[in-house]
Amino acid sequence: MTKKVGLIGAGAIGTVLAEAIEHKLVPCDELVVFDLNNAKSEKLKATVKFPVKVASNIDELLSTNPVVVVEAAGQGAVREYYTKLTTSSAELIFMSTGALLELQLTPKVHFPAGAIGGLDAISAAANAGINEVTLTTRKNPKALNKTNTQEAIIYEGTAEEAAKLFPREMNVAATLALTVKPAKVQVRVVSDPKITRNTHEITVKWNYGEMQLKFANQPHPDNPHTSALAAWATIRLLQNLLKAVETDK
Predict the structure, then answer these.
(1) Which residues pair with 219 in a beta bridge?
(2) Do β-strands 209-217 and 152-158 pair in parallel, antiparallel, or remain unpaired?
């Protein structure tokens, strides 16, 4: 079976994915890349030796029949291409989870843990009943497009609103919200010039106890808005999906 993977978005995360395929961490025979900036797709293709096809639009990408399509292009891309993607034969990985909050999900829609972990335990607790979920995210002002020189709380509210206000920086809030739905996640975003790592602290109070999780991740060197862990979480999910597809066949 030929394993083709589709990729929407040839930015920092897409490049990490391509490098993982190059180093045989992902069993892929061909990567099909689509980015609105065609030059970025061509640049990604030039960085690797394995087969890469550059698609000029989403229809051309899907016409190659990839077994999995990875979205790494932003919430706008999810909204624009969601119907075409979900009616295709491919399994789908969405990184821009903020857009998924307002869409009807199907069994072929998957999302990685991103910059956090412990979603298996949190999901299990959600089945039993969650009373309260809070997320405190601290990032350097540069990662939030801020210039404050003192620590400042720049947002307090729901995960849904946080994902809309910070579409590149707070997909982690959306991922948490999707995991505990219909429970609500309360979010605090702190712009802190003293920190160099993107830090996420999660507290969950559920019917049989409490959880406290903390993650401190290096920003991606080419994109300070996201953590390097987000790319590697996507790679892990892609590995699992490709293995599952192979087993089903």
Answers:
(1) 227
(2) unpaired
What is the pLDDT at residue 249?
A: 58
Q: How far is CA 49 from the centre of its chain?
A: 26
| C-alpha span between 27 and 25 (Å, rounded) | 7
CB–CB of 196/224 below 8 Å?
no
Burial 128-154 (b: 16+ CB within 10 A, else e): eebeebebbbbbbbebbeeeeeeeeee
Question: Which residues of the chain carry a pLDDT beneath 50?
Answer: none
Of 92, 52, 53, residue with least CA distance to 73? 92
Tell me, yes or no, if the pTM score tops 0.90. Answer: yes
Catalytic residues: 200
pLDDT of residue 224: 79
Asked if residues 144 and 166 have their Cβ atoms less than 8 Å apart, the reply is: yes
Q: How far is C-alpha 78 from the chain's CA centre?
A: 11
CA separation (Å) from 226 to 4, 81, 87, 108?
A: 26, 22, 29, 25
Contacts of residue 33, defined as CB under 8 A and 6 or more positions apart, other chains included, come to 6, 7, 10, 14, 18, 41, 44, 45, 52, 53, 54, 55, 61
Nearest residue to 231 via CA among 114, 150, 116, 132: 114
pLDDT at site 71:
98
Predicted pLDDT at 247: 72
